[in-house]
Each structure stands twice: as C-alpha cells, then as structure tokens.
Amino acid sequence: MARSERYGTFDFRDLRVLVVEDEEFARGLTCQVLKGFGCAAVAAAENGNQAVDLLSTADRSFGLIVCDFRMPRMNGIELLKRVRVGLAGVARDTAFAMLTSYSDKPVVGLAFKLDVDCFLTKPTTAANMRNRLQRVMSTDRFIKPPFDYHEVYIDSIEDLELADADAAPIEASPQARGSGAGARPLPGRPVRLTDVRPGTVLVAPLKTSGGQTLLPTGTALDARTLERLQNLAEIDPVVAEVRIE
Fold first, then answer.
1. Mind listing the pLDDT tens digit for each residue in 111-144?
2. Disulfide-capable partner of 69 in 30, 50, 76, 243 (CB 3.0 to 4.6 Å)?
3. Residue 142 phi, psi (nearest 5)
C-alpha cells in the first residue's frame, strides 16, 4: 500500500508510534520528542521481543516504529525482518525508522535490504527527526513480497562487525575502483547521489564499504531509493557514489 494512500495529507496527530529502545534514558527522550510532535499515541518497548508482543496485542495498529539497532534478545534488524516478512503482528508495510550510530556501519546495509524507511543517526536533533519522519510518512512507497525479505540473511551480523573491525581502511569507493592492480575498470562513470536523477540505471553494482551488494547492476533508481541511499551515506559514505552511463 502506498504511504500517502494510508495517511492522506500527513499529520503527526494521526500517527501512533512504537519506540523500541533498551536504554531507559534514550527511550524516554525519544518518546518525549515524538509526543512533542503531537503524535496520537506513543508506546514503548525495551527490546524486539517486547515490541512484537505489543504489536500483536494492540487494540489499534501502529503506523510507525522507531527502533534502536543494538538491543538484547532481539535487535533492530531482527525486528525489522519480522515486520517485513509478516511475523510481527503488524502490517508488513509499517514505516520503520532505525536509530543507529556510526559504529553500526557494517550492518546498515542489511537494514537497507529489508527496506528500512530511514536511519536516524545518534545523536539526532528533534528538528532532524521531525523532518525525516515527515518525509517518510508522506512518501509513496511499496514493499516487496515476503519471500524477498525472508531471503535476507541476518545471522551474519556479528561476523560482519568483526570483519569490519579487522578490515584495512578503504581508500576509494568500490564503485570507483577495481579490485586491485590490473583489475578491469568498472563500466560507466562515477556520479554523486546528489547529482543523480530518478530513473537513472546503475551500470555497476552498488556496494557498502564492507562489500555488501545493496543494489545490482541494472537497478533503476527511483526518488525514494535515492533519498534512502543519501540517508545511508551519512553512516557509510562509500555509498554516496554510483556508476551510471
């Protein structure tokens, strides 16, 4: 379902939000900020398991989940996958904002593949949160079939983090260079996301600094994908550049 079809002209007063955060202070502060926006209701959970319980038993559905990544028992990536697959007791297209830090760079690509709607990088301001959530809730978007999300392998989160910690610094974007001396040059030309127009097609895969493929060759970049990539680039600058004709 398109987001604008569900909400019409967006107004925070129509929005019920679930905040999922294990740190008590951060959870309370996020709830306070959202209440300041005038949200119809703001509920809170300490982890993903508790969130699923609340989502499954709520009398009225939530339109937005604001969730931390690092939590015990069930982290934010696991909760996001449950939502998109349809196992969280809430509509699969429920808007999902992920609270992250720069140290989460190795795993944000997984959230992108699971169609997270936006990243809110800690520490974030109330103005930035309001602006980003307003765009999310008033933008048309569609999600993929459940099987596509089921295929996103998330059990490798710890391996990704360890690999990133041991990796040497990346000097240039994988989109802008080959794999080493004598490597075949990548097709097309490198262009910053801010200069790419909707409808542009990738001529090389877009990868994170950790080597995860976000988008394959041939992907047509729509306006929503471009905005999500620009948001992701705040955490992982490597994805700020793509290769096009």
1. 999 999 999 998 889 999 999 999 999 888 789 9
2. 76
3. -130, 150
157 within domain boundaries = no
| Domain limit, last residue, from 98, 121, 150 | 150
One-letter amino acid of 26: A
Closest alpha carbon to 218 in 205, 207, 208: 205
Query: Is the pLDDT at 41 greater than 80, yes or no?
Result: yes
Residue 114 main-chain phi, psi, to 5 deg: -90, 15
Q: What is the mean pLDDT of the chain?
A: 86
Helix, strand, coil share (%) of the chain residues, nearest 5: 40, 15, 45
Nearest CA to 98 out of 40, 84, 10 is that of 84
Residues linked to residue 229 through DSSP beta bridges, in sequence order: none
Is the pTM higher than 0.70?
Answer: yes
Token pair recorded at residue 160: 């990704």
